[in-house]
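Protein modeling request. Please complete all fields; requests missing the sequence field cannot be processed.
Requester role: graduate student
Desired output: 3D structure, token encoding
Chains: 1
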Amino acid sequence: MSALHLKRVEAVRELMADNGWDAVIISGTDPHSSEYPAPRWKQVEWVSGFTGEAGDIVITMDHAGLWTDTRYFIQALEQLQGSGIELHKMRVPEQVSIPEWLHLTFPDGGVVAVDGLCQSFGAMSELAPLSIVDMPDMLDGLWEERPLIPCTPIETVGEEQVGESRADKISWLRKFLLQNECDACLLTSLDEIAWLLNVRANDIEYNPYVISYLLVTQECVKWFVLKEDDGADEDTIDSFDDISSDEVEICSYGELLDGLSVARTEGDRIFVDPSTLSYTVGKQVSDLYGDENLVQGASPVKLRKAVKNETEIACMREAHFEDGLAMEQFLFWLEKEVSQRVVTEWEASEKLTSFRAAIPGYRGNSFENISAYGKNAALPHYCTPAVGSAEIQRHGLYLVDSGGQYIFGTTDITRTVPMGPCTALEKEDYTLVLKGMIQLAMAVFPKGTAGCQIDAAARMPLWRARRNFGHGTGHGIGFYLGVHEGPQDIRQNFNRQALLPGMIQSDEPGLYREGMHGIRHENLVLCKEAGSSEFGEFLEFETLTLCHIDTSAIDRDLMNQEELDWLNAYNDRVYETLGPALNPEIRTWLRAKTSMIL
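Delivered output (598 residues):
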């Protein structure tokens, strides 16, 4: 495939020569700044062959580069071979961002072409004083049989699942507009629109979103979504009946500018989030309303949906119970089958999906399963091949990172599974990563603490052994929405957003040795009140994930008593909670797996 991608890079250069451009930026996202774009917008993959979820490409007449982060360095080097595209490393001390690189490459100025639909309005300001040419869908002429915009049937989630009606959420957003002296708000992030309207679909794989825009004013709500004249099928059109009302007007996805014009009156101020608003749409909105009436800021929906209400939390507990049963059935199956015959990474992945699919309310996986044995697990976001995947041996470590989308919640869990005898180094690494996960799970911290301020708790056991990992320690997770959501996270990068009661995030330190093994332990944790004293109010985490942690690869001498107590209590809770719902054979097996380590 490298020759094909080399040819595609050259085709882009011909386009540059024809138009007098010095550089082209090809983004890995879509018109809604989605982390996981639909196939139509997988432009980076089409040009380069790189399949990671985070990556942007810059092409000049004498250079082509892919910018991606530490999760994908090994993968990128493998997939870019022969393409003529070089890896530029991000999230490392010596990183040089795309704007910085372009300024260094063209110190006297240059012309940079972008597909403005797939570049954020805020990010483009960093390119000044370079000249920007906005070419929406610039690859259309090169990309034969480019996929269409997807459009799938829409379902409404009820108050019994999400705890709040669509009307109440719209009313809340209107109050925000009044408080900020704005007349309208344009939402472009798909997870925010899905949350506000209480709708879900399957327009993007693994993410239950509807590709759309949403305009909210004090007088109207206009939802710009694919309709019959856009190519939507009958099932999708029929699903609008549950949503269309006096409160929500269904408009065509391609008529956003016309809809904004009709809803606007002279002097109206419109609120937008420049981090998710596309450059193309941002310019249109600015031209229509005037720069002075364009109010830019972080969308209030991000924080509101990140703090789960009591109904959502109760449903998420149910999701983790059901998901835990599927995980235990899978781990029992895996151990039994590998002891008798050859099992590949792909077969194991498919079997895990089948256990989840049997759960009533299952809507799909929350991301592509990472099923990786041995050295393959050293790639944090390994893509398991359907053909030719590795065999899972009766020794060493197997890593499975997976999750489910259910009508009652979203899950994300990683287990590193000892498949038999492990080396001393494998046990040491396994234990150090587990110590980090436990230390973060046990953290107590003052209200107002941001995730970056407690990230070190998960890294300290590794740091003391002079080891580290390059990805974040924790991300927020949506309620039957995206498996990754903000505004909170737990990572070394500075993020001022405090962790708040009701937020759910992952706890997932790791360690990766190229060519040898990779280890990650991951649970989801709920932030909750932990009491107060004369020194203020405090918060802590409650672990929601229910699936045993294998103790057979633990180096007991590396664990302190507090960590052992936590581990024993956790495994015992898993057995007491899940055991009664498992068949006798698996229940007996789980009892042995969760026996106390002294």
